[in-house]
Amino acid sequence: MSQNTAFVIYYYKNNIYSFNALIGALETDQYFDQFAIYFIPKRDGLIHSLKDIINKHKLVVIGISFFTTQLWEIYDLITTLKKKYSRKVILLAGGPHPTGDPLGTLKLGFDIVVVGEGEETIIELLKKIDMGKDFTHIKGIAYLNESNEYFFTGKRKPINLDDYPPFPIKNAKSGAIEITRGCPYVCYFCQTPYISGVYPRHRSIELICKYVQELKNHYGDLTDIRFISPNVFSYASLNGKTLNIPLLEELLVKIKEIIAPNGRIFFGSFPSEVRPEHVINETLELVLKYANNDNITIGAQSGSQKILDLCHRDHTIDDVYNAVNLTIKSNLKINVDFIFGLPGESDEDIELTIKMMKDLSKLGARIHAHSFIPLPQTPFEKKSAKHLSEVYKKEIKNLISRGYAFGDWKRQEKIALKIAGYLRNREIRE
Question: What's the pTM?
Answer without folding.
Answer: 0.95
